[in-house]
Amino acid sequence: MNDRYESPLSQRYASKEMQYIFSPDKKFCTWRKLWIALAETEKELGLAITQEQIDELKAHETDINYQVAREREKLVRHDVMSHVYAYGQQCPKAKGIIHLGATSCYVGDNTDIIIMTDALKLVRKKLINVMAELAGFAREYKDQPTLAFTHFQPAQPTTVGKRATLWLHDLYLDLEDLDYVLSSMKLLGSKGTTGTQASFLELFDGDHDKCRKADEIIAAKMGFESCYPVSGQTYSRKIDTRVLNVLAGIAQSAHKFSNDVRLLQHLKEVEEPFEKNQIGSSAMAYKRNPMRSERIASLSNYVMADVMNPMLVSSTQWFERTLDDSANKRLSVPEGFLAVDGILDLYLNVVDGLVVYPKVIEKHFMAELPFMATENIMMDAVKAGGDRQELHERIRRLSMEAGKNVKEKGLDNNLLELIAADPAFGLTMEELERTMEPARYVGRAPKQVEEFLEEVIQPVLNKNQEILGMKAEITV
Questions:
Q1: Mean pLDDT across the stretch 391-420?
Q2: With bands split at pLDDT 50, 70 and 90, how would you rate the model's confidence at 61?
Q3: Most exposed: 163, 200, 211, 293, by fewest CB within 10 Å?
Q4: Active site residue: 151, 183, 266, 282, which one?
Q5: CA gap 21, 458 in Å, rounded
Q6: Cα separation of 446 and 107, whole Å?
Q7: How confident is the model at residue 433 (pLDDT cuts 50, 70, 90)?
Q8: Active site residue 83
Q9: Share of the chain above pLDDT 90, in %
């Protein structure tokens, strides 16, 4: 099919698992599951529905006659009633009780909640696998000193592993948000055309308890603990906003990670995976572009912008419902999930293959370390009898001279030589070089990595052992 548009989210980015969750088969099979649950519930609550009718509905739960539904929709211009009709063609005995008392949102909105819940569970699985991979990386490089950066200027050193915990902590915060939203997902239930359950109250001869019980039974049959307590015809569209806010949060974290990797790759300190036959540039054959991290950034921008859609939909709904949500929801919710699915696959793939170059890291580190060691050097000189105020001024001037040599003349940092030549410090070059041990300058970074992984991350991984071990395949 090369003569029409196909979404790159399906062609290039999202996994088959996520694509299935938002597929027609998943949607319309769920509609039928809901119709079966409704019929069973109404039978259990005393309506004249037979087991034979329910068995007939179950026999055709998955063999959806799409062509009949499509032809019917051309005639009646209503997707739900077209599928009611198509189901009825396959189930002549149950035809009269399909969708009994319900409005379109019974299948439409309940299905949306079920699909978003399943999609959140898949996102959660992938998120935790990325966290596990990052935890391994942080543990492996917890002791590797590296320059830290503030304002992208060299700052007090950290370790490669400690920096990775910053990426990991962002994902941990995302997981907290995701778990909260996932735990709060409820079905719409059987609320009727304006949320009053009037049609069900009529069916159950004015029995309010049976109306309430219907929601409880349907929720249980569909795997949910409860239904939202009140609604208009639809569940509150703020639910979509809450869900996409979680996705946008993951996108923020992934974008920050991708930025850091791209900057580190520019410095030649850390590199994303680069396959044997991969081409970095059509013109510059030597190039190794961070295209996976760039794709993470690109998709993340899309998701962060996408969250605006449910906000606009939710804020502009009129009273008990309007239909200006429908077309937007069909686009924004699936695409948000498909994009995040692709982001997490890329994230997992990049972390799994990250390459660290300790020699380059050490070279950059040692070029800046003399500046950072000046406090230690000054203290050693004071212990040897020097005046702190005088030494502070001298070291300031020497640092400026060394910086000028580096920036204006392109020379190596010669601060140590300048200090050794100044008799006020009373320190030899050998004594100064002994202060240049990188591990002396990383503070608690290695221990912080150990504590964070042990106290915060490992308990999460221990609770989710059964979903660990994923590997991501990406389409370039």
A1: 85
A2: very high
A3: 163
A4: 151
A5: 30
A6: 53
A7: confident
A8: no
A9: 78
Whether residue 228 contacts residue 102, with contact meaning beta carbons closer than 8 Å, is answered with no
Answer whether 96's CB lies under 8 Å from 130's CB: no
Q: How far apart are CA 232 and CA 191, in angstroms?
A: 8
pLDDT of residue 275: 57
CA distances to 155, 326, 359 from 442, in Å? 11, 54, 17
What count of Cα atoms within 13 Å lies in the side-chain half-sphere of residue 225?
A: 4
CA gap 172, 168 in Å, rounded: 6
Our answer to whether residue 293 is catalytic in this structure is no
How far apart CA 287 and CA 297 sit, in angstroms, is: 20
Half-sphere exposure of residue 300: CA atoms within 13 angstroms, side-chain side: 22
pLDDT for the residue 378 = 79
Distance CA 219, CA 188 (A): 9
What is the rounded CA–CA span in Å between residue 202 and residue 474? 54
- Do residues 347 and 130 make contact, with C-beta atoms less than 8 angstroms apart? yes
- Total length of the chain: 476
Whether the per-residue pLDDT at 288 is higher than 80: the answer is: no
- Which tokens sit at 185? 């997902």
Tell me the Ramachandran region of residue 387: left when phi exceeds 0, alpha when psi lies from -120 to 50, beta otherwise: beta
CA distance linking residue 147 with residue 365, whole number of Å: 6
For the cut 90, the answer to whether the pLDDT of residue 392 exceeds it is no
For residue 131, how far is the Cα from the chain centroid?
A: 11
Residue in the structure block whose two tokens are 């050693």: 380
Tell me the three-class secondary structure of the chain, residue by residue: CCCCCCCHHHHHHCCHHHHHHCCHHHHHHHHHHHHHHHHHHHHHCCCCCCHHHHHHHHHCCCCCCHHHHHHHHHHHCCHHHHHHHHHHHHCCCCHHHCCCCCCHHHHHHHHHHHHHHHHHHHHHHHHHHHHHHHHHHHHHCCCCEEEEEECCEEEEEEEHHHHHHHHHHHHHHHHHHHHHHHHHCCECCCCCCCCCCHHHHHHCCCCHHHHHHHHHHHHHHCCCCCECCCCCCCCCCHHHHHHHHHHHHHHHHHHHHHHHHHHHHHHCCEECCCCCCCCCCCCCCCCCCCHHHHHHHHHHHHHHHHCHHHHHHHHCCCCCCCHHHHHHHHHHHHHHHHHHHHHHHHHHHHHHCCEECHHHHHHHHHHHHHHHCHHHHHHHHHHCCCCHHHHHHHHHHHHHHHHHHHHHHCCCCCHHHHHHCCCCCCCCHHHHHHCCCHHHHCCCHHHHHHHHHHHHHHHHHHHCHHHCCCCCCCCC
The tens digit of pLDDT for each residue in 120-148 reads: 999 999 999 999 999 999 999 999 999 99
Residues paired with 145 in a beta bridge: 159
